[in-house]
Amino acid sequence: MGHGDHRHGDDEHEHPHGHHAHEQEHEHGELGLMDLRVRALETVLAEKGYIDPAALDALIETYEKRIGPRNGARVVARAWIDGSFRRWLLEDATAAIASLGYSGRQGEHMVAVPNTAREHNVVVCTLCSCYPWPVLGLPPTWYKSAPYRARVVREPRAVLAEFGLELPAGTAIRVWDSTAEVRYLVLPERPPGTEGLDEEALAAWVTRDSMIGTGLPRPPQGP
Ligand code: FE
Questions:
Q1: Catalytic site residue from 84, 99, 103, 130
Q2: Distances (CA, A) of 134 to 119, 189, 207
Q3: Residue 31: pLDDT band with limits 50, 70, 90
Q4: Which segment of 25-29, 117-121, 131-135, 166-170 scores lowest on mean pLDDT?
Q5: Distance, CA 22 to ligand 1 centroid (Å)?
Q6: Is 130 a catalytic residue?
Q7: What distance in angstroms lies between residue 198's CA and the mean position of ligand 1's atoms?
Q8: From the CA of 165, how far away is ligand 1's center (Å)?
Q9: Which of 99, 103, 128, 210 is catalytic?
Q10: 174 and 113 in contact (C-beta within 8 Å)?
Q11: How would you write 27-64 as a 3-class SS string?
Q12: Strands annotated E in the chain
């Protein structure tokens, strides 16, 4: 399956039906049941005083924002400093990413899409919430929300502006629709002011949203 099959411009949008029909029947049924079971378990445990829902939220947030996306950040930082790794990532993201130790469920068929001055990439799953778990961890709530999934395709520039990302008028926005088979990772541009930083310091600039396309890399925040 080539790049072009999942490529969508600003205006036109098609969904590769077959993959999603399959995914909805299987994966999503399971996830729905899993959600219900988790919710039931959480309620019982909280009622009995075994867990503190706030502590649980903090734990989930840690996985959403810190641990998970750090894997992707290391991939991006490596691509910024190592030209041959960058070429490998753009040619065969699954293999390049696996070489750093990140592989597994929901990351079997990765495609990396590079931002340039002329083109900005943003990732969505229009029908559900396909997301590259091994490099980004758990999807944020907004990624799974119906408004994001519907609107980012129709009016990507407006949606990105709501995330605080105002792109120059001359930068085209390309929206990539994830499927059960292909998961996208945005390769943001290395920001100015990062010359001389080593890989680890660079990785600290890479935010989760910059790898979804709803943000840009930024200087690391304090602890
Ligand atoms: Fe999906």
A1: 130
A2: 26, 21, 15
A3: low
A4: 25-29
A5: 10
A6: yes
A7: 35
A8: 24
A9: 128
A10: yes
A11: HHHHHHHHHHHHHHHHHHHHHCCCCCHHHHHHHHHHHH
A12: 7-8, 110-114, 119-124, 172-177, 183-187
User: 191 C-alpha to center of ligand 1: Å?
Assistant: 30
Cβ of 194: how many Cβ atoms within 10 Å?
Answer: 15
DSSP for 152-175 reads HHH-HHHHHHHTT----TTSEEEE
Determine the distance separating the centroid of ligand 1 and the alpha carbon of 57, expressed in angstroms. 24
Is 210 among the catalytic positions? no
Assess whether 129 carries a catalytic annotation.
Answer: yes
Residues whose CB is less than 8 angstroms from the CB of residue 42 and which lie 6 or more positions away in sequence, other chains included: 51, 53, 56
Tokens found for residue 220: 């690391």
Residue of 84, 99, 103, 125 marked catalytic: 125
The identity of residue 73, as a single letter, is A
Q: pLDDT tens-digit profile of 50-104?
A: 888 888 888 777 777 767 899 999 999 999 999 999 999 999 999 999 999 998 8
The domain 6-212: what is its CATH number?
Answer: 3.90.330.10
177 alpha carbon – ligand 1 mean position (Å)? 8
Indicate if 99 belongs to the active site.
no
Whole-model pTM above 0.85? no
Question: What spacing in Å lies between the alpha carbon of 8 and ligand 1's midpoint?
Answer: 16
Confidence of residue 4 (pLDDT cuts 50, 70, 90): very low
Helix (H) or strand (E) holding 201: helix 199-203
- Other C-beta atoms closer than 10 Å to the C-beta of 212 total 26
Q: Of 84, 99, 103, 129, which residue is the catalytic one?
A: 129
